[in-house]
Amino acid sequence: MAYESPTDLLVLHAIRLKGMADVGSVVERFSLDRALVEELLLDYEARRWIERVGFADLSGWTLTGTGRVENSRRLAAELAETGAREPIADSHSIFLQLNGLFLTAVTKWQIRPTPWDPLAANDHDDWRWDERVIKELASLRRRLQPVCERLSGTLTRFDGYPDRFSAALDRVDQGQTAWVDQPGIDSCHLIWFELHEDLLATLGLERGQES
To answer: What domains are there in the chain, each with its CATH number?
Structure first.
């Protein structure tokens, strides 16, 4: 049976995954009780695990250095308690293979080389080029599904990634192409990045440490 992480871990972890999150984002990320989330956020602020930050017209909570250490400590304890390291590590290895393909697809979405400029920005005028990228993303969606099923079958906090990715890709199919990689929305790129961060945090790895 999959292990359900406690709310106090999920609140801290949601902020790590989002980078910056307001109360609503934390509540929505793991379908948590708002009153309990607000109480825990105040407690974490008092402990100096989180702090309020603002950028342009955006504001929210972010982890402090101490908060990141605390999050990592709790994730490591959870992994030891549940004995979940092996299935999570195996899933991470498969994800890394898919990650290279995903990064290539996103690069193609953003750049379409021309004879005079190999790094020319994709102006999305060539629908055949874009259609090939979208098909590559659809293929990755199918290949990601069993990976995430194994993850969520081990720790329930991994639930939802395939559904979110599918929802974003459905919007792309409907012509809303911003949902491939636009920041600030639950785009394919943001969801993929978040899953990658979730795996790294869970296994206690930093970007660049992966083989």
So the answer is: 7-79 (1.10.10.10), 85-203 (no CATH)
Cβ atoms within 10 Å, residue 46: 9
Contact yes or no for 140/191 (Cβ under 8 A): no
Residue 58 reports pLDDT greater than 90: no
> Rounded distance, CA 75 to CA 69, Å?
10
3-state DSSP percent of the chain in helix, strand and coil, to 5? 65, 10, 25
Q: Check residue 47 and give left, alpha or beta (phi > 0: left; psi -120 to 50: alpha).
A: alpha
Q: What is the pLDDT of residues 93-142, one digit of tens each?
A: 999 999 999 999 999 999 999 888 888 899 999 999 999 999 999 999 99
- Dihedral-angle region of residue 19 (phi above 0 means left; psi in -120 to 50 means alpha; beta otherwise): left
- Neighbouring residues of 32: CB distance < 8 A, sequence distance ≥ 6: 7, 10, 11, 26
DSSP 112-137: --BTTBTT-B--S--HHHHHHHHHHH
Q: In this structure, what DSSP letter does residue 174 have?
A: T
Q: Please, what sign has the CA dihedral across residues 91, 94, 99, 101?
A: negative
Instruction: Quote the pTM value.
Output: 0.94
Q: How far is CA 44 from CA 29, 41, 135, 186, 206, in A?
A: 18, 5, 43, 26, 24
